[in-house]
Amino acid sequence: MGATDGSDQDAAFLDRVADRLAALPGVLAVTLGGSRAQGTHTPDSDWDLAVYYRGPAFDPADLRGIGWEGEVHGIGDWGGGVFNGGAWLTVEGRRVDVHYRDLDVVEHELAEAERGRFRWEPLMFHLAGIPSYLVVAELAVNAVLRGELPRPAYPEALRRTAPRVWLERARTTLGYARANHAPRARLTEVAGAVATAAAQAGQGVLAARGEWVTNEKRLLERAGLRGVDGVLSSLEADPDALAAAITETERLIDAAVSSG
After folding, report:
1. Rounded CA gap, 203 and 223, in Å?
2. How many angstroms separate the CA atoms of 197 and 173, rounded?
3. Which of these ranges, 120-124, 163-167, 197-201, 250-254, has the smallest mean pLDDT?
4. Residue 16: half-sphere exposure toward Cβ, Cα within 13 Å
5. Under a CB-based contact definition with an 8 Å cutoff, are residues 43 and 32 in contact?
6. Does residue 3 contact residue 18 with C-beta atoms inside 8 Å?
7. Which of 151, 143, 146 is CA-nearest to residue 38?
């Protein structure tokens, strides 16, 4: 229980919640993710948990039946992709998110990642969207609390293919903004393109290093792209200034890629 940084109260709380989730019909494993699994949390950080099941064996109605306060969503309610649903709860006065992970899907994406293949999916609150190998990243970095799960290393094939895909997305995003938004002084659209391209490039930089990404919260820092803040803070609704901002973002991305 090192993820709770030695707090007896945190460890006891996590034990109680993990036991309750593991007892749900169809649940084969329970994990702790987010900042608490990585030791970067603060006292008010929420608790990110996931339940692993196979196929139709798990029913969110059973989770709802525990009676914890909050919202329990159905499977597929969050878009039907690899990030296929979850619950936002308050348990013993603490904020707890529970994500649903179908092992059939997870094992498929692990096999795909080992072949260097993945697909892109949109996801709320993620500028760049997510790769389908996000569920593989979770296996690698999250703490397994109950049950057994694979603990994959970063596939070499994915290190070869993913950076190219992500960096091409970033360059295309900026190219479109340069051709269509900057000449018309569309400040908001250029700002959005710069932010999106920075997140896309961050995914590519970290993929080249073989570093897993499970969310965008520290993506720019890890990828050496926090300098994009300076680009955004200096934007003004002038075609030449917006074009210059796009060029500076491209320079920052090239520098981050070169630094490896």
Report:
1. 8
2. 6
3. 120-124
4. 12
5. no
6. no
7. 143
The rounded Cα 202 to chain-centroid distance in angstroms is 12
- For the stretch 188-206, pLDDT in tens is 999 999 999 999 999 999 9
By mean pLDDT, which of 40-44, 47-51, 94-98, 247-251 is the weakest?
A: 40-44
pLDDT-derived band at 37 (thresholds 50, 70, 90) equals confident
Distance of alpha carbon 159 from alpha carbon 166, whole angstroms: 11
Strands 120-121 and 130-131: antiparallel
Q: What is the mean pLDDT of residues 245-258?
A: 98
Backbone conformation region of residue 221, classed left if phi is above 0, alpha if psi is from -120 to 50, else beta: alpha
CB-based burial label for 156 (10 Å; 0-12, 13-18, 19+): exposed
Owner of token pair 């030695």: 6
Contact 206, 223 (CB under 8 A): yes
Region 80-87: mean pLDDT is 90
Structure token digits, residue 12: 């006891």
Structure tokens at 181: 């938004």
- CA atoms of 127 and 214, how far apart (whole Å): 13
Query: Is 50 exceeded by the pLDDT of residue 12?
Result: yes
**Which residues have C-beta within 8 Å of that of residue 173, sequence separation ≥ 6?**
193, 196, 197, 200
Query: Per the confidence metrics, is the pTM higher than 0.85?
Result: yes
Tokens 């993945």 belong to residue: 118
Indicate the pairing of strand 94-102 with strand 86-91. antiparallel
